[in-house]
Design a protein that fits this description.
Elements (H helix, E strand, L loop, with lengths): L5 H34 L5 H13 L2 H12 L4 H6 L11 H27 L2 H8 L4 H12 L1 H17 L2 H7 L9 H10 L3 H33 L1
């Protein structure tokens, strides 16, 4: 497809699929978590926030190692995989999705949390005086007002998943057609001295990274003008 050999096109396709599934899953999981972190008065909520943020500072090999144990045959992943007759979630596309969700979580949660926190109490208090239930106020007031944060989180989560290497290599290996994504394909091409193919994928990722950064700058300027 697109004139590319399969060992280049398939990793691109798998990367896009992985990033899309991970981003959608993260929006579902991260949005209520970010809402709770922004609104809760629990004394231990910052401990939860610190746990969510661990992937930012942990070496990918450390995070990948523990995910490998959890997803392996002797961990919870093995018990889940046994439901359909498999032994492990490690070295599978499903395992890659789980690992990507964990490693990209802070990049989605933090912008959404900041957006919810920036709303303040006033809009929700107004909604309450109009007899809106907390659930309805969340969907009709808080979520629309926090949409810039959701968009930022989605873009960052997608971009981080596309660029992740250490975690996906640890828990997914480099299995052609199953877990070989763009980052691991570049690593494989370099090891086998396929410089042209490595340069093709690496150049594409540089262009993608530039497009993401430029988009974030332009979006931030647009949101700033809208708030003014």
């Amino acid at each position: 497809m697109l004139g590319l050999p399969s060992d280049i096109w398939v990793p691109i396709q798998l990367t896009i699929e992985l990033a899309a599934i991970t981003t959608l899953s993260l929006l579902v999981v991260a949005t209520p978590l970010a809402w709770w972190l922004a609104r809760s008065r629990a004394a231990w909520k910052e401990g939860v926030a610190a746990i969510v943020s661990l992937p930012i500072v942990l070496p990918p090999t450390v995070l990948g190692f523990y995910l490998l144990i959890l997803l392996g045959p002797d961990g919870p992943g093995g018990a889940i995989a046994s439901l359909w007759g498999a032994r492990t979630l490690a070295f599978t596309f499903t395992g890659l999705v789980i690992g990507s969700i964990v490693s990209s979580m802070p990049f989605v949660v933090q912008p959404i949390r900041n957006a919810f926190a920036a709303i303040g109490d006033r809009p929700l208090e107004v909604a309450a005086t109009l007899r809106a239930s907390p659930r309805r106020a969340f969907w009709t007031v808080a979520l629309p007002l926090a949409s810039p944060g959701l968009l930022t989180g989605a873009v960052l989560g997608f971009a981080h998943t596309v660029g992740e290497f250490g975690v996906v290599l640890m828990i997914g290996g480099n299995i052609p057609g199953r877990t070989r994504v763009m980052s691991t394909a570049i690593f494989d091409f370099v090891e086998t001295m396929r410089w042209r193919d490595a340069n093709m994928l690496a150049g594409g990722m540089v262009a993608f990274a530039f497009a993401v950064i430029l988009s974030m700058i332009l979006l931030e300027k647009r949101f700033a003008r809208a708030r003014a």
